[in-house]
Amino acid sequence: MRVRRLPRDPGPAAWNRLLEDPAPANRLEASITADWLVIGAGYAGLAAAHRLSKEAPGARIVVLDAVRVGDGPAGRNSGFMIDLPHDLTSDDYGGALEGDIAQTKDNRQGIAHAAAMVEEYGLSAEAFTLSGKINGAATAKGAAHNTDFAKHLSAMDEPFELLDSQQMQDITGTQFYQSGLFTPGSAIIQPAMFVRGVAAGLASNRVTIHENSPVIALERKGDWVARTPKGQVIAPRAIMAVNGHLNSFGYMQGRLMHVFTYASMTRALSEDEIARLGGRRIWGLTPADPMGTTVRRISGTGGDRIVIRNRFTFDPKMEVDARRIAGVARDHDRAFAARFPQLNGIEMEHRWGGRLCLSRNGVQVIGELDVGLYSACCQNGLGTAKGTLAGGLAADLSLGITSPALERALAVNAPSRLPPAPIAQIGANMHIRLAEMRAGKEL
Ligand SMILES: Cc1cc2nc3c(=O)[nH]c(=O)nc-3n(C[C@H](O)[C@H](O)[C@H](O)COP(=O)(O)OP(=O)(O)OC[C@H]3O[C@@H](n4cnc5c(N)ncnc54)[C@H](O)[C@@H]3O)c2cc1C
């Protein structure tokens, strides 16, 4: 099967631009054999390769990615590795109690896997910290979402702390937030530093990562044969860790929703601007309303900066043009100005977008797609935790290792069918836009 579409990521992966340039890419330029092939070097692909390297000693594992590690969606996100339910299509992230308890357990397994890799490869606290996170509320409606979510957390027997406006100001330096809901179980990562650190730790004489090496055809000829522009990999087992690009390989057609979301990062702040801003030097807020604005205050490699993320668009073709980035930039600037009047006039240095893959019924695609071909895809907007989980589980499935989490993943229904693309695109974008408008000042 020829791969129909290769990834195109709009704008720079800003987190990766903060880091030193990597050594030149090790492109695949030969025909090689391996025991396992992993396609995709995001959270899912790296977790799969890590798990295989532990559980199949002596096996040779090849990972292929179309782009540099950290340049794809894995290096473009807001860096919240969230343990709790995070249903972007709900009012307050919560869903049915029993499902949310199971989901939390699974997300924590993903985070624990990430933490184990951080430990093993000696990654810094800047790359990954188990810091918890805050849902910030700017309005009474946002505060009500937080209260509803807090009730849901109580029913789940999960700890949380409600923060008042003064506590929020002490943390963020801004008077914008009326209240907040702190939960302790999430990690915050520097996304590109995390994936590049894991990739560097994995690389060995048994695990080889070829970047800028897109798979342009994948066929089963006894073994799986993946062709790239200048080489090929032949392996009896392959793990697809390409998130929504599973569709580009011909799988799950008409069942995956391709959604873009967007972010902007300021230039480094001066000491004077940092003093004017106030608050802590490092914090992160997800919005109380899932359609609102995510904000991170970072301090480390690349200086002190603020990162704003908002807006979702549904784009079944998996591509957006430069005009889209320019359009959402206005929403980022408005959200930034409303929150940080004391930083009036500070420019954004980087603006970008990136892909999410959602299913209508909120399920992931973890399983065996064909003989010896496994999937760790469709992370429903929470790929840092769910992708890491999926990669580990797909590796286990290929190894014949069972676990309650794997059984749960295999028991779910397939992603629900979507209406025909043009109808889905119009309907979904109208729905998203209305929900964003209803989010009001939270956006
Ligand atoms: C602005 C923004 C903010 C976000 N914030 C968060 C957040 O705070 N927390 C969170 O959990 N998630 C967040 N996300 C989503 C998160 O980035 C994704 O869910 C996550 O990256 C998915 O991980 P993955 O490993 O499944 O796939 P990806 O990270 O997309 O990795 C898949 C890889 O497969 C490669 N690939 C695709 N096709 C081919 C091919 N033909 N050949 C070779 N390689 C191929 C791609 O280049 C890519 O590197 C955000 C996303 C964006 C854009």
Q: Can you give a write-up of this model?
A:
β11 (217-221) and β12 (223-228) form a beta hairpin. This protein has 11 helices and 21 strands. The mean pLDDT is 96. It has 443 residues and is of the alpha/beta class. The termini are far apart. The protein has helices at 14-17, 43-55, 97-121, 140-155, 165-172, 191-202, 271-277, 322-339, 383-399, 404-411, 421-439, and strands spanning 31-33, 36-39, 61-64, 80-81, 128-129, 133-137, 161-163, 179-183, 187-189, 207-210, 217-221, 223-228, 231-235, 237-240, 257-266, 283-287, 294-300, 303-314, 348-358, 365-370, 373-377. The structure holds flavin-adenine dinucleotide. Flavin-adenine dinucleotide binds next to α2, β15, β19 and α9. The site of flavin-adenine dinucleotide (FAD) has 40 residues, from α2, β15, β19 and α9.
Summarize this, please?
This protein has 11 helices and 21 strands.
Q: Strand percentage, roughly?
A: 25-35%
What is the percent of helical residues? 25-40%
Ligand list: flavin-adenine dinucleotide
Q: Main sheet?
A: 8 strands, mixed
Total number of beta strands? 21
Mean pLDDT: 96
Structural class determined from secondary elements:
alpha/beta
Please compute the radius of gyration using only Cα atoms. 21 Å
Poorly predicted tracts of residues: none
Shape: globular
Largest sheet strand order: 7-8-6-16-17-18-15-19
Number of helices: 11
N-to-C terminal Cα separation, in Å? 42 Å
List keywords for this structure.
443 residues, alpha/beta, eight-stranded mixed β-sheet, six-stranded mixed β-sheet, 11 helices, 21 strands, binds flavin-adenine dinucleotide
